[in-house]
Automatic annotation (TrEMBL):
It catalyses: feruloyl-polysaccharide + H2O = ferulate + polysaccharide. SUPFAM superfamilies: alpha/beta-Hydrolases. This is Carboxylic ester hydrolase. Belongs to the tannase family. It comes from the Eukaryota. Keywords: Calcium, Carbohydrate metabolism, Disulfide bond, Hydrolase, Metal-binding, Polysaccharide degradation, Serine esterase, Signal, Xylan degradation. InterPro entries: AB_hydrolase_fold, Tannase/feruloyl_esterase. It is an enzyme of class 3 (hydrolase). Pfam families: Tannase. Its EC number is 3.1.1.-. GO terms for molecular function: feruloyl esterase activity; metal ion binding. GO terms for biological process: xylan catabolic process.
Amino acid sequence: MLEALEVYEVQDYVDGVANFTTNWSTPAYPAPVLDLPPFCRLGAYIHTSNSSKVQFEVWMPHDWSGRFAMVGNGGMAGGVNFPDMWGPIANYKMAVCSTDTGHNGTSGDGTFLLNGPETQVDFGYRAVHLTTVYSKKIVKEYYKQAAKHAYWIGCSSGGKQGLKEVQMYPEDFDGVIAGASALWWSHLNAQTYRINAIVNSVDSPGYLNRSDYDVIGKLVLQQCDGQGTDSLKDGIIENPRACQPDLEQLSCDAPGANSTACLSDAQIKTMYRIWADYHQQNGSFVLSGFEHGAEGLAAFSVNGSPYGPGPDYFAYQVLNNTEVTAFSANATEMDRLIDIADETDPGQTNAADPNIQDFLSRGKLLTYVGLADTLIPSGLTIWYYEQVRKALDYPEDLHDSFRMFTMPGMGHCRSGPGAFNFGGPGQRALRQGGTSTGTSFDKEHDMILAMIDWVEKGSAPDMLIGAKYVGDDKRNGTLLERPHCVYPKQAVYKGGDPNAAASFECENIL
Ligand SMILES: [Ca+2]
């Protein structure tokens, strides 16, 4: 089996590794990986065509749980995701693998797409699938027995990759955790380009900058937090869709306007357009807008400079430009390019197929999204859930195999005022702040343990308890805990300590 691979690394770390780094540059994943248990490491290339190859690594702990996992990537990266391999191997004793998706580069750099039709396919789906197939074989060879269960653990592009596996290779994984998925790649890239370059372009009179968003975000909190169905004023908007902010009082024309913190009518219009769904000029739905409150988070991405994958996707895949070019398009041209992208799906990168009955008949799918996502509008995850329901004709037993969690006050995959640490993808060692690890190592506070229980014992998670740590560092202690509810339920405050999860219950509101 190994003859098909170009192996570049086989090493047994019998004493574990305190600080793992590579001897080559990984611009997408430069962070060191700390406190690894004893494991065997294998790194190799898969030659996927005469003009493309895929790098992957599989790390196999000496003390093995019998489980296999793969972690996903972010944006257009571009590198074996060593930092994210830490959680599965260190916390769950899983054999874990990751791929570079066929190239080495940062999450925002799409120049690898240039003149690389095979590399585009590697990025679209092939790198992940083949890495899964080969890694499972390597695991079986190493332990002399196959892994009993296989798990996908990813957020953002990692969510897209997990859903692509569900759609194309339903046998690869038994449990798939797909967070804040970039699943409708063509439409998402259209949205990130358009919302920055057209709606909030730097040279337009309605341009909004960070300090404008601070002013707006503060008013949105006043109008949405602790109002209506939001049962507690805690700086977290429970359901941003249940609130329709009115920015009129921020207008410089309003009576008694604060001249240093007011907005022009053009700026107010820009904010409403950022919140609104995006449609082509013929009325076709393209993608959701951002949720109310996302603008208030520091990482809000609509700053007039489109995130790299947007323009690079259209320049090098849809238009198929053969040299580095600056991408520019108006609304009419974007309409045309979206149609071409829908028709051609270059690299087969879209992961929006809702017909996933083959997977749901045998596996478990857990999707989740922060309701204040600052990079990928939260609505995309909700949209896909509804698309699946519709495609499968609204099955009553959908929750037996597919559940979605919506997490208030959480930005893209993590961050924000919400309780975004719940043992999901992207966990870090305590020496690195313990990001994404839960307060307790049990299925109530840990998404991966919840998934394991669901797959292996048939016990589905009804809620997950997330935490926000003081200064976003677990070593400082816990600031607050919140239950995250299975959609469409939301957490309702029932009285008692507002920072304790037990003071809330998941209820159907709408
Ligand atoms: Ca609230």
